[in-house]
Amino acid sequence: MSEAATLRDLLVRYLRQRAELGDRELFLGGRSAGQLLERLQAAAVAGLSQATRTGRAAAAEVEGQPSSVEAEPADEFEALRAEVLGCTRCRLADNRTTVVFGEGDATADLLAVGEAPGYEEDRSGRPFVGPAGQLLDKMLGAIGFRRDEVFICNVLKCRPPRNRDPVADEVASCRPYLRRQVELIQPKAVCAFGRFAAQTLLDSELSLNRLRGAVHEFMGVPVVVTYHPAALLRNTQWKRPAWEDLQALRRVYDEAGGREPGGERG
Ligand code: URA
């Protein structure tokens, strides 16, 4: 295939993928040809699982089986990861060191959602690894979960400069990724850590305290809201109410049929 044809093929695959994620616009402003090529190559890696799926469906049809053979969820998850790791949808791509896709069990029954990567997360590419992350691990442990049994991610996958608050268009750019993560992971319960995660997931402007203490819903999955661990580190008087939120989370998780976690309750 000529270079031009390869590029055209990559671009077509990329646009299809964006459309699958629900995008109706494409932001290319300010990208050099080299950056665009890099982006398309990342999308091509992601597109591999799409090709596998198409191939499987065709094979099934030939054998007289229904053509709706699904891609392995793990393939789709890896495709999404590749997609997100190459993201240049918003200005945060300009200053990040790494994209923080999230980590943990891609089939977890519990999804923990924070705000955005901080300094250490941006450096390491892993969510919640700084002091707030250590507290997050303890919070999960308190209700019986080991960190690796949960999927942990953020609303934003890139660090805002100097940890400033995310802005609306950055959230809008990242939201399809979070939705896709929920679709693929299919958690039984979601915990929103902090005001920002709660307001984004619940599409609400209510304060954290107004959102705590109730069971909400995101894409059909029950959502419990609690304090962000970084806020708890600064305000130890919120430990007790946070503990109550976590117990409520565990109840909701159990009622939704979440698998018994293997950690010992702390
Ligand atoms: N705070 C967050 O909200 N997420 C992280 O990953 C780290 C700190």
List the helices and strands and how they pair.
Blueprint: H1 3-20, H2 33-62, H3 73-85, H4 92-95, E1 103-104, E2 110-114, H5 119-124, H6 131-142, E3 151-154, H7 168-185, E4 189-193, H8 195-202, H9 208-211, E5 216-218, E6 221-226, H10 229-234, H11 239-255
Parallel strand pairs: 2-3, 2-4, 4-6
Antiparallel strand pairs: 1-3, 5-6
Helix pairs in contact: 1-2, 2-3, 3-7
Uracil binds next to helix 6.
Helix content: 40-55%
Strand order of the largest sheet: 1-3-2-4-6-5
Q: How many strand elements?
A: 6
**Average pLDDT rating:** 85
Beta content comes to 5-15%
Taking the sheet with the most strands, its summary is: 6 strands, mixed
The run of helices and strands is: HHHHEEHHEHEHHEEHH
CATH classification class of the largest domain:
Alpha Beta
Strand pairing plus helix content: what structural class?
A: alpha/beta
Query: What is the CATH third-level topology name of the largest domain?
Result: Uracil-DNA Glycosylase, subunit E
Total count of helical runs of at least 4 residues? 11
Q: What is the molecular shape?
A: globular
Gyration radius from CA atoms, angstroms: 20 Å
CATH superfamily of the largest domain: Uracil-DNA glycosylase-like domain
Q: How many domain modules?
A: 2
Which spans have pLDDT < 50 for at least 5 consecutive residues?
Answer: 45-64
Bound ligands: uracil
